[in-house]
Every structure is written in C-alpha cells, then in structure tokens.
C-alpha cells in the first residue's frame, strides 16, 4: 500500500484526491501496489464532506507517520509550504507539488535534500498545468541541446488576449469579464503583469540550463498596456498578440524575457487560444516541437500532480536525478536579444525614417492620427538607441 | 563507458551516430558516464567515411561482444531486424529502435524478452519521429484513462494535403512534386493508402490498452481518392482535410480507424501543416492535450532514438515496465463509431433527404452538377444503411 498525504484541500488538493479515487484501478495497475490518500491537511473543517474522516489540522501527524510515503503539497505560496516540504523530504518522504512560487525559489535546494535522502521532489504541475513539460524535458528531450523554449504559460492572460482579438474589446472590459467568469482573480496583478509566467519560465530555464535561475532577474512585461487599437494593427499584419515567456540559449547561458509578442500565423503557438497553454521547444537535433493542453483547472492540474505521484510511487527508494544546481546562472542581458519591433508614433514618416531608416508601415482599419510600423530585426539595445527622440505610443515585439 | 552498436547506416543510423557525437557532452552529463558508438553494422562499405573504422559486416561481432550495452536497430522492416533485436535482448543488451513495422508486429513479444532478461526495449521514434509520444504515454499521462488518441502520423500525406489545400492542386500533381522533393517514395502506397499511419496507431493503441493490437484489424483508408473539388468543399465549410489515425475507448476496449477527415478550425490538429506530425490525446482527467513536432527527418528521428539510448544507459540493469500484453485486444468494430459524414452526390435534394432526412447543404465555389452535404452525427452502420440507393461521388468523415 502506497500512502499519500495531501497538504491543502483547495482546488488542486481536492482534485488530487478525486483523481486518485476515480482512476484508482489504472494507478494500481501501473504502480503494482494499492494506493490511497491517508491524510488531508487543512486548517478548515469540511462538515459533511467524506474528507472529514482523513482530515488533520496538525502537520506533525503526517510527517511523523512512517506509513506516509508521498506528500502532495497543494497549499501554494512559499511558506509554510517550504517548511513542510523540507520536513517531509528530511523524514524520507517523496514530495510532489504544483506550487510554482515554491519551485522557482527553492527548487534547487529541495532537489538537493531529496538527493541526499534518496527520495524525490517532483513538480510537473508547477508549469503548464496538465501539460507534460517538466518530465519531457528531463526524460524525453535528453538527446538535444535546448536552444529555445517559449511558452504561453498563463491561461488568464491568454483567455484575455483571445477575447480581445476575436471581439475587438478593450483590456478593461475583458478583464472584468474574466474576473466574472473566475478566470482572473480580484487582484489580477500576478497574471496580467506577467509575474506568474515569469516564475514558470524561470523554472523551465533552470531545468534546461541545469542551474538556478533567479526569476527577479528576468525582464517581465505584462498585457495591461495592450489596447483594442493594437489588436487592429495585429490583424492588419496577420498576426496574433500573445504573452510569451521566452528563454534562448546564447553562448553557454540563457536569455529570458516575458513580454507580449506579435506572432505570425505559421508559428505553432499562433493558434493556442482561450485558457489553453502551450510550450514551444527548439532542440539542436529535434528542431521544433510543441506541447499543448490545459494550463490550469482542477482536474488537468491534479492529473499532472498524480502523474508525479505515480513516478514517485514507482521509485520509492531510488532518487531520480534532476540537474538543477543551486549555483545561480548568470542570465544573458535581454538587451542583447534580437527581434523586430512594432511601434506606434504620433510623429511623421520623416521622423520615423530618421530614427530607423527603412521600416514596414502598417495601416490598421479605422486608425488615424498616428503611424504604425515594423522595424527590421535588431537588438533591444539598438532599438533603445534608435528610438530616442521618437514619440512612442506603443511598442510590441514581433 | 557505455558502448552502442548501430544496425544499419542509412538515414536514421547515420543520424544516431551524428547526434551521439554532436551532443556528446550533454549526453555524458545526463548519463553520468562516457558514451560512444563502438560498431556500425551495414552490408555496404563506406570508403572514405570515418565510419569505416567501426564498420562491421557480421552481426555476430556485435552480439558476442560483452562490452556492447545498447543496440540501436535502424534497418527497418521485420526481418532480419526481428532476429537481430531478439538476439541482442537475449544476450542481455538493451535495444532502441525506430522501426514501426517491427514494433507493431513484434512489440509485445520483444518487451516480454526484455523483461525476462532484465533489460529494456524502447521505440520512441517508431511513432511521430522526433515527437515524444511513447514515453509521455508511459511516464507522463499515467494518472489518466486515455479516452482518445488521434494523430497526424504521416508526414508525406500531411505535406500533400497541405499543398492541395493551399494551392488547390490535384492529388496526382502533388504526389509528383512530393516524390521530386524526396518526401514521397517511388512507390508511395504505404504512405498514401494509410498503411504507415495504421501501424503507428496500432502501436499507440497497444500502449494505451496495454494489449497487443493487430494492425490488420484496423479499418484503413488513404488520401488517394481526395480531389481538388473536395478541398473546395472543405474550404466552404471552413475545415481542413487531414489523414487522421484515431483510437477511441469504447467500454473496456478501443475502436481504431485511419481515414481522411474534415477538421474544424478549433481542433488542435487543424493547423498542423506540411511534414509536421502531431498527436492529440484526451484523458479523462487531463482533458485535451497535443504533442507536435517533426514526424520524420534524419536528425529529429535520431534525436528520439538517442533519447531512448539515454534512458537505456541510465537503466542498464533495471527493467522499465511497459504494459503491453501479448494477448490480442479485440477491437470494437469501427462500424459502431459515430461521426458526421460529408457526402457528394449527383442526385437531387429529394433523393438526399429521402435517404438522410435533415442535412446541411454545402455550396463549394465553382462546383456544379452535384450536391454536397453534411449529415447529422450517426454511426458508420447507420450511415451505410441510410446511404443505400444514393449515388455517392465521395464520402469524407467530419
């Protein structure tokens, strides 16, 4: 019998219990042993819910029970999640988590403890919800040097950008609608300003680089400045605007950035709409690949957590090596990265050409009193230099 | 030192050697040991090629060398590949292959031998080329009951359908062009009649069902009857025509079929064009997911083979369990599966409505002298029954 304890009985924690119960037959077949949820930890009571029978309020009951093999952390936030996970690993229990904040900040350290204790720490659901991406990076794309990883990693903002694109609506209206539907939180900052996507690309970059990436060093822009007029320009260019979290190999390190981008129709991420997430990967041998699926939601996320649980249950006394050194990776300055830049200005063509030379002018339907144009490809530093003196209404990378 | 022997120095075999050499540093880091290609087996000589130094013509040199840990089978076809792989496994060597014919026919049996000998038999590259799909099914989607798996699994036919769609060209012209570009073989039957996709969906179905699926029992239609007129209708419906290999869970078994289908724009596979492949998966917890990438080509395919080699090298004395029983799965008759049917007839609306009742008529640009329509959803058996007596020019499932 494999005994699981779930920390936190919110959306994901209750989803994990549901998946383990609903698909128990399949899990038992794969693991080769029975599996059950022995404890659920939560501060709250749930009168009338069958969870009552296994509900505990004191974490010590779980961490001191030698029968507990696997702890699922589904509380979110760095504390007390960090302390609990650390204690579990030190007590010789394996841990699965969906907590991106915890993994981005403490991943390397917790993996080290897991290695020392010959147990495992897994976090498939921390990036891309139900989409398998962590394990594919660690176990499937092992023959490749990953040269680029770019994701639509936040369902809230992708839903909003999709709505703005197909309905021509303004940002504020779409945000209200997303909040009403429960897709965006009352304080939407973490999503719309790109902080959530930033932590996720930090995790992915740490894994492909094999070293700790400090998410605070990743240049991050959100979608809160995107307007209905920008969408009109995007349509005139045959492009979509998506919030992309990107990491590119430059020399022996990586450059990472989170920003809205104008994507061409032939890019695999172009058609990823609504709350779906997707991760595009370019390997030096594989070429282009993409993983697509539900980036959030109770059961998809819980499905990824339980896939971790299955991996943990079939490797109870065997550490699965994950390369993620605690030594911080010095990221390449994003100012060195190149792209084309879409710019809107109230100045005239003469001013535009004085600044950028040859550009591609874009005429959006019904937009007057300003000029929109696409620059040639150049580095961020070159763009900063050239754009000085031009009155910029908007800039979006293409 | 991990020693690899490659059987066959064609496109994939030479690609495997190239990947192991080019990304050696990365592989060594992941495996924790040096890795090299010790032998390449081929009947031919390659004068002037560096492979000469490790080239052998007699398989016994490889199978009798206790230093060889891993054999990569890249010859294709069932024989002598089967005999060689079997001998390697029986000699305690692990095997990786990209050979779909071998895996579809002998997969269960070779896995059984690998299990008995405590070694491994892996075949990631046999389906979807470079796209990780076998390992994700075995290791990532383990918390889900897979209810559907549908793939664009043949790059040749997807290239042809894409060309026909975007250029309005006829089948015969596109085939000629594909042959000129080396995307289609001189005898294109295996690709265009769906036999290649059939073997691949047989492998995927065997894995999700955990039992041997006989590919000869899968109803298979190719693309050779698709015309430029069909494409006009598809465009009028806002759909694309793709050759899809589908497997759906019905009760305790699966229904599998290979056939061209009219896909709506919101389906994740709609935008998969050119030689790319993709596999759509629906899990009972995960919901929809998709894996996309290069379905063929020297380096992408070799990258998937070498990912197997890495997995084999890190599990040299440990059998990784794969559920694929030799007992044949009785597939559900595809006549029980449902879809909508797009039909073209030279008869009039009265005859159409007499047969099918309410239908959705489609007017394609410039097409006269016939009627095109979409039926309601019904089973194949119901369709067969209703369509009797109607003069059908074309039928494509939608």
Automatic annotation (TrEMBL), chains A, B:
<feature type="binding site">
    <location>
        <position position="100"/>
    </location>
    <ligand>
        <name>NADPH</name>
    </ligand>
</feature>
<dbReference type="GO" id="GO:0009086">
    <property type="term" value="P:methionine biosynthetic process"/>
</dbReference>
<keyword id="KW-0560">Oxidoreductase</keyword>
<dbReference type="InterPro" id="IPR005106">
    <property type="entry name" value="Asp/hSer_DH_NAD-bd"/>
</dbReference>
<dbReference type="InterPro" id="IPR016204">
    <property type="entry name" value="HDH"/>
</dbReference>
<protein>
    <recommendedName>
        <fullName>Homoserine dehydrogenase</fullName>
        <ecNumber>1.1.1.3</ecNumber>
    </recommendedName>
</protein>
<keyword id="KW-0486">Methionine biosynthesis</keyword>
<feature type="binding site">
    <location>
        <position position="185"/>
    </location>
    <ligand>
        <name>L-homoserine</name>
    </ligand>
</feature>
<dbReference type="GO" id="GO:0004412">
    <property type="term" value="F:homoserine dehydrogenase activity"/>
</dbReference>
<feature type="domain" description="Homoserine dehydrogenase catalytic">
    <location>
        <begin position="132"/>
        <end position="310"/>
    </location>
</feature>
<dbReference type="InterPro" id="IPR019811">
    <property type="entry name" value="HDH_CS"/>
</dbReference>
<dbReference type="InterPro" id="IPR036291">
    <property type="entry name" value="NAD(P)-bd_dom_sf"/>
</dbReference>
<dbReference type="InterPro" id="IPR001342">
    <property type="entry name" value="HDH_cat"/>
</dbReference>
<comment type="similarity">
    <text>Belongs to the homoserine dehydrogenase family.</text>
</comment>
<dbReference type="Pfam" id="PF03447">
    <property type="entry name" value="NAD_binding_3"/>
</dbReference>
<keyword id="KW-0915">Sodium</keyword>
<feature type="domain" description="Aspartate/homoserine dehydrogenase NAD-binding">
    <location>
        <begin position="8"/>
        <end position="124"/>
    </location>
</feature>
<dbReference type="Pfam" id="PF00742">
    <property type="entry name" value="Homoserine_dh"/>
</dbReference>
<keyword id="KW-0521">NADP</keyword>
<keyword id="KW-0791">Threonine biosynthesis</keyword>
<dbReference type="GO" id="GO:0009088">
    <property type="term" value="P:threonine biosynthetic process"/>
</dbReference>
<keyword id="KW-0028">Amino-acid biosynthesis</keyword>
<feature type="active site" description="Proton donor">
    <location>
        <position position="200"/>
    </location>
</feature>
<comment type="pathway">
    <text>Amino-acid biosynthesis; L-methionine biosynthesis via de novo pathway; L-homoserine from L-aspartate: step 3/3.</text>
</comment>
<feature type="binding site">
    <location>
        <begin position="7"/>
        <end position="14"/>
    </location>
    <ligand>
        <name>NADP(+)</name>
    </ligand>
</feature>
<dbReference type="GO" id="GO:0050661">
    <property type="term" value="F:NADP binding"/>
</dbReference>
<comment type="pathway">
    <text>Amino-acid biosynthesis; L-threonine biosynthesis; L-threonine from L-aspartate: step 3/5.</text>
</comment>
